[in-house]
Amino acid sequence: MLKRYNKQGASAWDRKLTLVLGFLFGITLLLFAVYAVTLFSTWAEVDGCLDEGGSYDYESGRCDFNVNHPNPEAQGGL
Q1: Which of 25, 45, 56, 75 could pair covalently with 49 via S-S, beta carbons 3.0-4.6 A apart?
Q2: DSSP secondary structure code for residue 69 in this structure
């Protein structure tokens, strides 16, 4: 079966490898969280604009209530 991790019986190399892999996993998780928050905030801004009856201008990044702007994703632009 699986061996339990014996902290005192492990070599220095095993302990360092465990720390490095844990650190890399933590950094990767942090970067993913930052990316997800950025993506969600952009989505929420566009959704809020559309809910208020505006049209989101993707080029300038603002809500416009006078001109109807096309969605670049629907046209294959992004």
Answers
A1: 56
A2: P
- Contacts of residue 72, defined as CB under 8 A and 6 or more positions apart, other chains included, come to 58, 78
Q: Do the domain assignments include residue 14?
A: no
Domain that holds residue 65: 33-78
**C-alpha closest to that of 52 among 69, 43, 68, 64:** 64
65 domain residue, yes or no: yes
Number of structural domains the chain divides into: 1
Q: How confident is the model at residue 71 (pLDDT cuts 50, 70, 90)?
A: confident
Run of H or E including 64:
strand 62-64
Q: What six digits make up the tokens of 51?
A: 């809910």
Tell whether 68 is covered by a domain: yes
The pLDDT tens digits for 9-44 are 668 888 899 999 999 999 999 999 999 999 999 899
> What single-letter DSSP state applies at residue 33?
H
